[in-house]
Task: structure prediction
Amino acid sequence: MRDGSSEETRAALGAARDRIQMISSAHRRLRLGKDHETVRTDEYLPDVIADIKESNAHDRKIDIQSDLAPIELSSRDATTLGIIIGELTMNAIKHAFPGKRSGQIHINLARGENGILKLRIADTGVGLQKKPRKPSGAGLGTVIVNQLCHQFGGSVKYAANGEGGTIVTVDFPSLSEVKPQQSLEQDAER
Result:
């Protein structure tokens, strides 16, 4: 990054560094359950979110709060969910609060209607901006989030937050909670 010849190159390398750190955090913070295959979201994700704040907003007055249901997931699914939350939270930090602006981000993960897992990330930032898209289309973070959400049958929806800012919601119809005993029985069948 120091040797980059242009601001655009340094920004791209900085974004890549942040993304690698976030994925590394999602893996490092993984605390497996007693069966060594599952993890509870309310125990795992707060540390991932704290790492994201530390690496992306440590010098800014952005308050990140979370309300996470105690949902038992396979370690693979929990890591994927951590990456999705990380990308969307980094996006909010980067775009909702330009120029060192302060604000809040609230992350909610709960069972919605029909037991479907629902993620909601709301910020109090500048809101949805009507600026021209890049000629190449969506950025890498958006592509990553869309692909990972698609794995669970979900899609990302953006809306204006009535209090100012943006609300991002994702339903995960095919993301199933795994009971620790169920995971042990599946391993025994293999």
